[in-house]
Design brief:
mainly beta, 4-stranded antiparallel sheet, 7-stranded mixed sheet, 0% helix, 127 residues
Length: 127
């Protein structure tokens, strides 16, 4: 079992940047695929980005391509989400989640494919 804690959320102006962190404990985060999801008020939880255990492959939702970057530092047992050029539409609670390698890299944009979740961190973008 792994525990996940997100941090780095806050209030930023339109066009600003934030870097979110997902710190793992209990097991090495390098033994999982890792994803970021977000949920805005009144909306379904949506895929943002995912990264393989080695960091060699990544995937992004169309809405964040070119603005967000997912990365990992396995030595620090942490995965990051760098968010640039933030828009009001990015306002949401952001969640980190991990997916067992045995489940495969496929279906990585589907929340039900992930096994463990953090409690989330709020990102608010004001114009």
């Amino acid at each position: 079992q792994v525990q996940l804690v997100e941090s780095g959320g806050g209030l930023v102006q339109d066009g600003g940047s934030l870097r979110l962190s997902c710190a793992a404990s209990g097991r090495a985060i390098s033994t999982y695929y890792t994803g970021w999801f977000r949920q805005a008020p009144g909306k379904e939880r949506a895929f943002v980005a995912a990264i393989t255990e080695s960091g060699l492959s990544t995937d992004y939702a169309d809405s964040v391509k070119g603005r967000f970057t997912i990365s990992r530092d396995n030595a620090k047992n942490t995965v990051y989400l760098q968010m640039n050029s933030l828009k009001s539409e990015d306002t949401a609670v952001y969640y980190c989640a991990v997916k067992r390698l045995a489940a495969g890299w496929g279906r990585r944009s589907i929340s039900d494919e992930y096994d463990y979740w953090g409690r989330g961190t709020q990102v608010t973008v004001s114009s």
